[in-house]
Design goal:
- This protein is α/β, with parallel strands linked by helices.
- It has two domains: 54 residues, no CATH class; 246 residues, TIM Barrel (Alpha-Beta Barrel).
- The chain contains 13 helices and eight strands.
- The chain has an eight-stranded parallel barrel with strand order 1-2-3-4-5-6-7-8, surrounded by seven helices.
- α5 links the parallel β1 and β2.
- α1 runs antiparallel to α12, α8 packs parallel to α9 and α9 runs parallel beside α10.
- Bound molecules: flavin-adenine dinucleotide.
Amino acid sequence: MLRNSLLWASTNPFLAERLPQYRFVQKATKRFMPGQEFTDATREAQVLQERGIATTTTLLGENLTSLAEADAVVAHYQEDLRRISELGLDMEISVKPTQIGLDFGTDEARDRLAQLADSTDSLVWVDMEGSEYVDRTLDIFRSVKEDKGNVGLCIQSYLRRTEADLESLLPLDPAIRIVKGAYNEPESIAFPDKGDVDRSFVKLAQTLLQARLSGAQGRVVLGTHDPRMIAGTMRLAGELGLGKDHYEFAMLFGIQRDEQDRLAREGHQVRVLISYGSAWFPWYMRRLAERPANLWFVARQMVG
Ligand SMILES: Cc1cc2nc3c(=O)[nH]c(=O)nc-3n(C[C@H](O)[C@H](O)[C@H](O)COP(=O)(O)OP(=O)(O)OC[C@H]3O[C@@H](n4cnc5c(N)ncnc54)[C@H](O)[C@@H]3O)c2cc1C
């Protein structure tokens, strides 16, 4: 109920315009994002890198109103990539297909993703958005993967279709980030039961680890804060005789910091996703929906 309300708020343009103007709201976001500027993200990335943790960064901002805005997003990321290499950071970028023009056509988004892939030797990650975008996101990913190679894809374990999607992607030897999924989806499309979402997550991880065992090179990234998913992956890898270089953990900035450090200290590959930008409201509401207990944190900012 609370989760649904928060997800509803995440798509409400009135709230998106009003709430961010309040100082307490701005203050409360600090827990999950270091600031609105790219320099805020790189500052924290440097701190994390010293602790053995790599990063991914993403510019917050959702559906656009023109292709000129998509071009501006591409130019913005290209400048980020230039700065990342100048600073010598182990930082990758992750982009939302709608931010690079998917609402204006698959070719439009595909061409812009290809431009980004051309701008770096690192991997460019493609986020997965609401279920209405999955087919088109798979199309642009496949096309750029075949052409350029250096792209990775996020898949969501809550979607009933994802297991079949992953099977169809395996011949490409893809780099995959598995997450549970953050959007409000109907039962016909996504598992309503958390147990099923978790089982699907483990199954997807198993498929990718098996592929590694058979010689696949595509990176296997587990995007989760869930201790059971983390321990489960380690157990699976151990059973298959795969070392720590065969999988990576990815978490969001500010969430489970101790766990991030513990995993890095134990020699696991850990990457933290740092978001920045002014359009943070829908994204922030989705983070609260994942864990309504964080509302207490927001409430404390209002009085503290
Ligand atoms: C690197 C990365 C990239 C992502 N990219 C996408 C994407 O492209 N598309 C998409 O739909 N989703 C994406 N997500 C979000 C993802 O789908 C989940 O909504 C989110 O990770 C929460 O699920 P979980 O597996 O961490 O654990 P959950 O099952 O939600 O929670 C398990 C446990 O993790 C901890 N936890 C989880 N969330 C929080 C929180 N907000 N605050 C504090 N503790 C928490 C708690 O201990 C909780 O009990 C991404 C997540 C990560 C980490």
